[in-house]
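Honest question from a wet-lab person: if I give you the sequences of every part of a complex, can you actually get the arrangement of the whole thing, not just the pieces? Trying it with mine:
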Amino acid sequence: MGRRRRCRVGPDDATRALPEAIAALSRTLPAGPSPETFRRAKFDSPEAAPALWRLLFRVLSPGPPDGASASLSLEAQARSVKSALRSQGYPSQALAQLPDNGSQGSRQLLLALAWLLARGPLLEQLLAQSRVRLGDEMPVCECEALASPGPPAPGMGEAGHVDIRHLQWLMGKLRFRWRNLMASQQEQCALLGQIHLYTRGCHSDRSLGHLSVTETELLRDPEGGRQLLRRLESENARLEAALEWRRREQDTVLGASQPTFLPRSPEPGARELEPVARELQALWEQLQEAVEARRAAWEARHPQLQVGDRGPAWSAARRALDEVVGRDLAALQRAWEPGGGLTQPHGPRRLVRTEARAPGGPGLRASEVIEALRTQEAHLEVVLRQLQGHCRQELARLARALPGLIWIPPPGR
Amino acid sequence: MLPTGCSRRLVAELQNALDSCAERQRQLERSLRVARRLLQAWEPKETPAPEPTPRPETNEEDQFSACTPSPQDLQELELLTQALEKAARVRKGISKAGGDKAPSLKSASIAASPPSRISAPAQASRRAGSHASQTKPPKGIRQTRVPAKNLPEQRLLSVADATYKRRGAQAVKPEPGLRDQQMVPSAAAQAPEAFMLKDKGVLLQLPVAFRKAASQNSRLWAQLSSAQTSDSADAAATAKAQFLQKMQTASGWPSAAEVGRLQKACSLLRLRMEEELMADPEDWAQEHRCLLTLQGLQAMVGQCLHRLRELHPAAGEQLLRPWPEGRLPRASSPCGGGADPVWSPQLLLYSSPQELQTLAALRLRVAMLDQQIHLEKVLLAELLPAVSKPEVLGPRWPALCRAVHSLLCEGGKHFLTILREDAPAD
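Yes, you can. This is the full assembly:
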C-alpha cells in the first residue's frame, strides 16, 4: 500500500486535501479542537482562541494531564503556554504580547502550533507520552527521573532557623526511604519473574513468549480488561489519524501561512542561552585553574622536560601522546555534534524473560545493561568520594587553624 | 542553629529528595499490589475464560460477561461428576482395603459439593487425553501433563473444566459459547475453586479482540516510526525546514537544537574534566597526557563560548552575574535527548529473576548516587561557609563542625570525636 500519495498539486486537490488533513490533525491531537476551530483560527476569530490556548497547554505541559493541571484557569494556562514557548525558544514576540485572558490571538496560536509541529515529532511524542503500556516496562536510564526535578518545596512551617540536627534527621530519613525502596524493588522483580514464568508460552506473539502483568491482570479482571481494550482502540484511532496527517503534511497550513516579519527582541533568546553560558564559563574557569595547577606541578617535578622542549626522544613520545589525546577529544566532540549517537541505551523497555541465548536477536540483554550501569555506578562513586574528600580537606584546614582541639576521625578512616 | 536562608534552602532540597523517593515508592507499591494479587488465588467467579477457537458470532461483551448455564451443561457436568466419582471409588477401593469407604465416599460426594472431593485422575485424564488429541501439540502436551501429576483434590475439576472449556465445547456441545466459565461456580458454588497462576498460568489465553487490537497497535506504531524516519527525502521535510527558517530569520535567534547541542557539549565536557581530575597519574607520560587533555578540553570550552557569543552578542555581559539562588543544574547524566527515538517499546531480555534484581538494584543505586552527589554539592555550598567563622560561633563551633563533618564527609553515618585539650593542672 503506497504510504505517500504523489500530490499533483492542483487547486482542486489542495482544497480537498486540506480539510481532510485538518480533520486528521484534530483526531490525533489530545483533546483536539474541531476542524471548525482550526478554520476560524486562520481568520483570527476570537472564538477559537480559548480552545487553542487549552490545546497548547495540553501539548506543552510535561507528563500526562492530571486533575491539578486540568483545573487551572484559562489565564493560568495561557501564562504557562507563553512561558513554555519562551523556554523552547519560540522566536515570536507577538504571542507573548497577547492578553492573558485567552480571548485573542487564535492566528498566532495556530502559528505556534505549526512551529511546534515543524520542529520535531510532536504528534509522536504526545502519543508516546500517553501510550497504553501493555508490557512490564523498566527504564534502563535515569533520564526521566532527572528531567523533572520538580519545584523546590514551598516554605516549610518553621520560620527561620533550623538546628543542624533536623538536617541530620532528614538525611537519615532519606537513607531509610532508599533502603525501603530497594527492598520493594527486589520484591517486585521476584514477583515479575514468577508471573513471567507461570505464563510462559501464552502470548500470541512468539517473540514475547509470556504475558505481562497488565495482560494477566486483564484476564483476572474482565472489567479492567474492557477498559484497557477501549483505551487501546482509541489509541489506534489516534495513531491512524497521525499517519494520515503525515501523509498529507505538504498540503497543510505550513506552506500557506506566512510568518509576518517579527521585531527583534533580546529577551526570549537570552533567557535560554543564559544557563548554558554560565555553565560553560564556570567550566572554563575550572579548567583554567586545573591546567595551571598541573602545569606548575609538571614544571616543578620535571624541570628538564619543558612542555615545549624539542629533544628527540621526548618529541616522539610527545607526538604520540598528542595524537592519542587528539583522537580522544575528537571522539568526545562527535558525541554532541549532529549525528552523534547515544552511547548508552535509553528509554523504557518491555521486560521479556527468556532462556534464549541467541546474540544479535532483537532487544537488549540485561547483562549489557548491567555492565553499563556498573560503569556508571563506579564513576559516580568516585565523584562522590572526591566531593567528600574535598570537604574533609576544608574542614581539616579549619581545624588546624584552631589549636587546643584534638580531632579523632571515625573508626575505619 | 543555622542562618535562615541557608536553613530554608537546605530543608527544601532535602524535602525534595524525600518527595521524589516517596513518589517512586508509591509507584512501586501500586504495581506490587497488582502483582501480589495475581499470584494469589483468583476469585472463582472471575475465572479466566480461555477463549476457544474463534467464534465470529460471539460479540465482544459476551467474552467478559457472565452467562447462565443451560440445563444441557448441568447434565453434562453431572455426567462428568459421576465419572470422576467412579474413578475415585476405584482408586479408593484399590488403595484402601476396606470397601466400606467407597459407599460413604459416594454419598458424601453427591451430597456435598462433589467436585472438590474427588481425587482420582484416571477417568479425567482419559477424557482430557481424548480432548487433548484435538489440541495443538504444545497445549496438548501441557494438558496431559497436568492430570498425570498427583493433583490435590480440589484442583482436579478445575483442570478438567479448563480442558473441557478449551476443547470439549467444540467436540461435545452443538452450541458454542462461554457459559463454560460459569460451570465451575454454579455447580460448585461452595467449593474453594480458585485459579492459581502458579498451577494453571500456562493455560491462559488472551481474548481475541484484545489480541487484534494489540497487534494493530504495534503495527501502527511501526508504521509511524518508519514514516517519520523516511521523512528526510520528502517534500514535507523541505517545507518544514523552510518554514522554520523563515520564522527563525524573522527573529534572529538560535534554534533550540543549537542550544541543546551546547548544553550537551557542556555536560560531556564537564564529565570528562571530572574524570581527568580524579585520575592519579603514575608516571610522567600519564601526567603529561592528563595535562594535554585538560588543555584540549579548555580549548573546546573556549570554542563553545565563542560560538555562543556569535549567536548572542549580549551573552558576554550577563555572564558576570552571580549564580542565582536556585537549583544547581545536574550535569552528571550522560543521557542526551533522543537522537533517533523509536516509539514502540523495545525489549529488554533477562534470563533469571536474580539477573533482573541485579539490574533493578543497580539502577536504583545509580539514581541514589546521583541524588547524593547533588545533595553533597548543595550541602557543601551552604554548610562550609556556615562553619568557616569559628570566632562567631564561639563554644558551639566544635559541635556544629562535628555535625557538618558527618553530613558532608560521611554521608551522615559516622561521626568523629573532638577532644578539648585542657591545660595541664599544675
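Two things worth pointing out. Residues 110 and 384 of chain A are 48 Å apart (CA to CA). DSSP finds 15 helices and four strands in chain A.
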